[in-house]
Amino acid sequence: MPSVDTPEFEPTWTSLRRHQTPQWLIDAKFGMYCHWGLGSIQQQPGCEDYTPEQAVEYFTAEAFDPAEWAELFEKTGAKFAGPICWHGSPFLHWDSKLDDFNSVKQNPHRDIMGELATAIRARGLKFFGSFHSISDDGWMERAMEAVDLHHPDVFWVDASFGGTKQSHHLKIVHQSHYLGPDESTPYDPDAPNPGHFPPGGIERLSDHNQRAFLAYLFNDAQRRGADIEFIYKSHDIPPGVGMRDLENGLLDHVAYDPWMTDVDMNISPDWNVHGWFHREGLPLRSAANIVRALVDIVSKNGILLLNVPPLPDGSFSDEVRGTLDAVGQWLKVHGEAIYGASPWSVFGEGPTVIKPLNPGSYHHNDHFATTLFTPEDIRLTVNGTSLYATCLGEPVGGRVVVQALSTNFKVMPDTLKNVSLLGSDAPLAWEHGDDGLVIDLPDGFTSSPLANVFKIETL
């Protein structure tokens, strides 16, 4: 926890690098947030062309219950959670004194950010707030007001904070040229504007204002003795300040910095269909997809931020609730392999290959939830003196082999004490040697439909 006697942060990148990612966030591994607001109206059939001023007339939120949201977050197993606080228009989700176009003075006449902050913290969770609308004109004052009112434990910004999801060399000249409408076109400085961003690039903060805001945010937390984090899209600010985030992305390696990925529960059919908010007809990621992604992410030193789309009225569909309940039930049994766990020397093994969508960028490489793991895909985490080997597919043939634990690698002979299957009392027969750890599944073995976790106790 920061000391009130520590010197204040100065608005320089050198000073801001003194900020440390809080251990509670590194241990949390799993958070949730909700795209819910005017976009929930604008994505409904017949409302696609509504202006924010038109959409707010229908944003009545008659079923919005912050206590119910917080209970859902907790039961699902999230350790931090919250709403989008500002997204895609001037409409603010708190009781602003700077702009009357907010959720208190307009429909639904509720302090969405404040009510959720209270309800979520009452459950013992950390409060998360995301900020997607950014312009140098007025953004600073509004963001500072949100910090002063509700002090998010996680302050998350979208790509427009810095204007990029790629490394800067891919976005010189005109930022609108860095990707085509399908987000896969190579950079071409002579190409016409593809329409993905407006001419001159997306709205973004200047380097000066980035530094000024971060100094304000970190000093506010330091004065309160609070451990907070700032989350930004990769490459938006220099490394070593806050935590980088990927969007609908997975890594192919163990990262040496803790990182986050925000993953949408919606599955869009193509690049032209926007998800994130509830949209009729869009399929959802399954509980198996979510759990296996979580395990893969944690094995690579990451944190999953799952977007959950409420209905326009503020309630959650039965399908969403059922999926999240399955995730929560799995975490109750297998949470020791996730919460507080660390990556091991290697993330695991298996044939499934995860590739960057573009050179140097892992954003959106799982945008369509197309990463399908096999029984041979195994992920490794460590907690205390125990290793956890999680099978990302249902084991076949009555045997699981973890080749990464070969005695020819790092785990020496006679250093394994016991192997057990989380959620089962049945003893396991196992052997440890050159071929790795070979586990024979017990008679009558019933596989978890989401993921099977083997606890390996070591000396």
UniProtKB/TrEMBL annotation:
Domain Glycoside hydrolase family 29 N-terminal, first and last residues per copy: 6-336
SUPFAM superfamilies xrefs: (Trans)glycosidases
Highest taxon of source: Bacteria
Annotated keywords: Glycosidase, Hydrolase, Signal
GO-annotated biological processes: fucose metabolic process; glycoside catabolic process
EC number: 3.2.1.51
One GO cellular component term noted in the UniProt record for this chain: lysosome
Any GO MF annotation of the entry: alpha-L-fucosidase activity
Family: Belongs to the glycosyl hydrolase 29 family.
Protein name (record): alpha-L-fucosidase
